[in-house]
Design a protein that fits this description.
The protein is of the alpha+beta class. It is built from one helix and six strands. It has one domain (4-87). It has one helix at residues 73-87; strands spanning 4-6, 13-15, 19-22, 35-44, 47-54, 60-64. A hairpin with a 5-residue loop joins strand 5 and strand 6 (60-64).
């Protein structure tokens, strides 16, 4: 369950680890340079993530980790196609 409450009816605020109030939508200021990590890593439903919040407007998102040792389905298909092409 997310601790982020997305609303435009309240001011953005951080009460980590209990709650984060965030605007509903990101703004032009929400670029990577303006985002800061909030708290440590968390695990929910087997997914590891942390929160990042815009220093300017307070918009908050979860950043998920994906282990690079596990290939995605598209990466696997690409590897198979390359292997087939080299065999012919």
């Amino acid at each position: 369950m997310s601790i982020v409450e997305y609303t435009d009816r309240k001011s953005a605020r951080i009460q980590y680890p209990r709650r984060i109030v965030s605007p509903l939508r990101s703004s032009p200021c929400c670029v990577e340079q303006n985002r800061e990590r909030v708290g440590g890593t968390e695990v929910e439903d087997g997914e590891t993530f942390f929160y990042k919040r815009c220093r300017v407007c307070g918009h908050t998102v979860r950043y998920f980790f994906r282990p690079r040792t596990k290939a995605t389905r598209l990466e696997i298909e690409s590897m198979r196609e390359r292997a087939r092409a080299t065999l012919h």
